[in-house]
Specification:
By secondary structure, the chain is an alpha/beta fold. The chain has 16 helices and 13 strands.
Length: 439
């Protein structure tokens, strides 16, 4: 490890002035911050300089490497079979992980998924799973590895000693308005993925009104940056830029998301959420086992139809202390909101656009998410929204429902959902689900 620069302000000044940073100096600066040797104000100044000036490919690699070196890694040496990791950059009604992890396990793959909690308008996989009574997500590294080996999948919280520099820097980015920087985002995402010993990393980079990347061009840039990092570390990875111009699934909440996932895993429902899950499952089999896309898709369909994927979900829930009956009858187990209010369309027409972020924020205001880290989450509340862009709706027809703690909150959320919709008199083509694959 390099010694600390004579003065850490030299690193800040170099980035402020647009001069390239030697990788060892950048690494030492970041590791010094993780150890408490570099104060918050200097790290904040560096982040702002990097936000304005950018980071080149070599600097982004050095930042990522330092984040990984700041803590322990999870090589997963004791887990047999091909291992796949999947990450989403966040969206509304994005329940892909809840369905993908058990489906991939049913296909013979191994999934050790470290997930996060909801923040802002996007939902968090951990919050969703913890709506199942008794389920734990605080698995230790050995416990996580053992479960993946025995069950095939585990979804758990990130260990505090796994890339701790990323956690510290992210909190500082959030406080200093430096979150929306593609190099900083790429380093944050990939440091966590590269610290885990998976054979394939799949990234779901969202683009649209419900995503952090509002345009496809920005999402493509982020996908390419992440793929460059994976290549620089000699790791196999693929990234899909996917649509988040509308809620992906129907459920925007926590218990509601789990119930929808069970419906999809049991083969009773379909739609864009399931199609995206199938796309990632197919890609994993093609890349890890050399399957043809047609054979991979057929195998995934059989795993759903024959109940193998749902059985893996049941086993995962039980292994993590949750009530496995959720796989058979979700609403016999999951918490229910005391108020359920239908959302009725105020006019007739074809759904032309949806402000997905507004629906996400309405769900947060009900209590399904958090505005700040540490805020409590109410697992039963949220929004169910059925139509997709291109669908016809009729005035007075229910387009969804609000699950709330009281009538006033339910009515306010329903108004916000209706205000987020734009109808058209003529036909509207639905947006593509996948804009492109990279890597």
């Amino acid at each position: 490890m390099s010694a600390m620069p004579r003065d850490p302000r030299d690193v800040v000044a170099a980035k402020r002035d647009g001069r390239p940073l030697p990788p060892d100096e950048l690494e030492t600066f970041v590791l010094g911050y993780a150890r408490g040797e570099v104060p918050d104000y200097l790290a904040a100044a560096f982040l702002m300089a990097a936000f304005i000036r950018g980071l080149d490919a070599e600097e982004t690699q050095a930042l990522t490497r330092a984040m990984i070196r700041s803590g322990r890694t999870l090589p997963l040496d004791g887990v047999p079979g091909p291992k796949v990791d999947k990450h989403s950059t966040g969206g509304v009604a994005d329940g892909v992980t809840l369905v993908f992890a058990p489906l991939a396990a049913a296909l013979g793959l191994r999934v050790a998924k470290l997930s996060g909690r909801g923040l802002g308008h996007t939902g968090g996989t951990l919050d969703k799973l913890e709506s199942i009574p008794g389920l734990r997500t605080d698995l230790g590294p050995e416990e996580l590895e053992r479960q993946v080996a025995e069950v095939g999948c585990a979804v758990a919280a990130q260990s505090p000693d796994l890339v701790p520099a990323d956690g510290a820097l992210y909190a500082l980015r959030d406080a200093t308005a430096t979150v929306p920087s593609i190099p900083l985002i790429a380093a944050s995402v990939m440091s966590k993925k590269l610290a885990v010993g998976s054979d394939l990393i799949l990234l779901d980079v969202k683009a649209g009104s419900g995503a952090f990347m509002k345009t496809v061009d920005d999402a493509v840039a982020l996908a390419r940056a992440c793929m460059d990092l994976a290549a620089g570390f000699g790791r196999r990875a693929r990234a899909a830029v996917t649509d988040m111009s509308q809620p992906l699934g129907r459920a925007v909440g926590n218990a509601l998301d789990v119930a929808e996932a069970v419906e999809l895993l049991s083969g009773r429902s379909g739609g864009r959420l399931l199609e995206l899950v199938m796309a990632f499952a197919t890609e994993a089999l093609v890349r890890l086992e050399g399957s043809s896309p047609e054979d991979a898709r057929s195998r995934a369909e059989r795993a759903l139809a024959e109940g193998a994927a749902l059985e893996r979900f049941r086993r995962m829930v039980a292994a993590q202390g949750g009530d496995p009956r959720v796989a058979d009858d979700p609403w016999a187990v999951l918490p229910r909101a005391p108020v359920v209010l239908p959302i009725e369309a105020e006019a007739s027409g074809t759904l032309a656009a949806v402000e997905a972020e507004e629906i996400g924020r309405a769900s947060v205001d009900l209590g399904a998410g958090r505005r700040r880290k540490g805020d409590p989450v109410h697992p039963a509340v949220g929004i169910v929204f059925h139509p997709k862009v291109g669908d016809r709706v009729e005035r007075g027809e229910p387009v969804g429902e609000v699950h709330a703690r009281d009538e006033d909150a339910a009515r306010a959320a329903a108004r916000r959902v209706l205000g987020a919709l734009r109808l058209s008199d003529g036909p509207v083509a639905p947006p593509p689900l996948v804009h492109g694959w990279f890597g």
